[in-house]
Structures are given as C-alpha cells and as structure tokens.
Task: structure prediction
Amino acid sequence: MFDIFVYLYIINLTGEGIFQNKIETTSMNLFDHEFRRKSDLLWLLTKKEITLKYKRTALGILWSLLNPILLALVLFIAFKIFMRIQMENYTFFLLSALFPWNWFSASITMSTGTLIGNVSLIKKIHFPRHFLILSTILGQFVNFIFALPIIIGFSYFYGKGPGINWFLSIPILMAIQFIVTIGICLAISMVNAYFRDMEYIIGVVVSMLFWMTPIIYPLNIIPEAYRVFLILNPLTYLITAWRDLFMSNATDWGNIGISFGSSLVFFLLGILIFRKLGRRLDEVI
Result:
C-alpha cells in the first residue's frame, strides 16, 4: 500500500500538470518551488525506506540500536572473556566504532540493490535516480542519530563526557562519512545494475573491510609489518576519529583531514560512474 502511495505521490511531484498553469513566475519562485518539490520527494523516499524496513516488526526502529549492541556483546564475549584482551572500557571501545560502521556498512549493503529493486519507479517515472540512493543512506543516518544518546551515556559513564568540541566535530565527521558513503553507494548501485555479481562481491568486501578497519582492536596492536594495510584503508582514519571523539573527547584533525580528502575522491568517482553508466540504465534493468 505504501508503494502505491509513493508511486502516486511521485507522479504528482514530477508530473507536467504542475507546470500547466500559465502564470508569470519569477526565477526565484521557480527555484524555490523546484527545491521544495525535490525535498518532498527525498523525504518521502527516506520515509519509505525506514517504514518498509521495520514493517511488521515488534521492536521497529529499535532494531537499529539492538543490532550493533548485540554484535558488541558477542565480540565482547569472544575477545574480552574468551581471548582475554587486556583493554579498559572495551564495550565502549566497540560501540564507539560500531555505530558509525553500522551506518556505513548498512548503507553500502542496502544501496547495492536499490536501483534493481525500484525498476517500476525508474521505468515509469522520470525523477532523479540518485534520490533512491540518498534515501537509503539517509534512512541509515536516522538510525545513527538514534544511537547517539547511547554513545553519550557511555561517554559520561566511561569517558570524559561530551565536550564543547562535540558540537563542531560531530557535524564535520557526519558530513565526511555522508560524502564518502554517497560516492561509494552511487558507484556500486549503478555497477550492480550492469553486473549482478556485484551484490555478492560487496558482501565479501564489506566483511573484509570490517576486519581490516580498527573496530574491534586498536591500531597499535597490529605488527608494524602489517599495519600498512590498515593505513591504506581510508575508513581507518574516519573510524579512529569517531572513537577519539567519543572516548577521549579529542579531535584529531590529521585523521579528519585524511578522511575528508579520501571522501572527496570517492565522491567524485561515484558521481562520474553513476552519470556515465546511468545513460543506459533504462535499457539494462
């Protein structure tokens, strides 16, 4: 039922009937009208992502919090109890990286099949295709926002508590992660429309990235000979910046700068691939 509502609403937003009123309109009014139309469309698609994901579940959006918490519990038992890793506040150490990672990995995994899963909308209605990808990322971003109170609670209990630099660093890190995630998601979603094997490859790559990013372990325990592989991973700097902020109330501008530079590279590559391959999207799907 919700899909039908989305379909009809997009037709209303993108239909020619909107422009059939022959009235004189200033360029500023046209820009404002276009902006509001696209904002409404993006909001509706994001709402659709969130609503359909948790449809008919007892806990609803709470699963977005329970998934990383339960994973942290499993990892805590495995590494802290069984393997006896000597590290203070290991639960907070895990969650401070798992929540940002969950936003990234879920966006990547779900956006891979987004274009394929919305064939009817793409073929019947003309609208910005990248809005489908943006709505997926925004849906996961909402989950991350809901997780912040838990991080704040752990920060008060285990760390130094939220500081004034949180108000500056969190929006910056959110923007960087949003940029890099958009770039990657645009590329893989479009490539998957041409090569359906990409969906299975991404699952393996995301799992590999999880273990090659310092999420469940600190970077300094990796031997020098192998640390270069983690240093080449751009997510290392982003996840480390999140953890430094949450646990130590510190802003590492070096990690943030490297993360921002790499995010721009992925963003531009993603736009290039999406635009180039998108010209024949209607034919391949």
About this structure: Residues 16-25 have pLDDT under 50 and may be disordered.
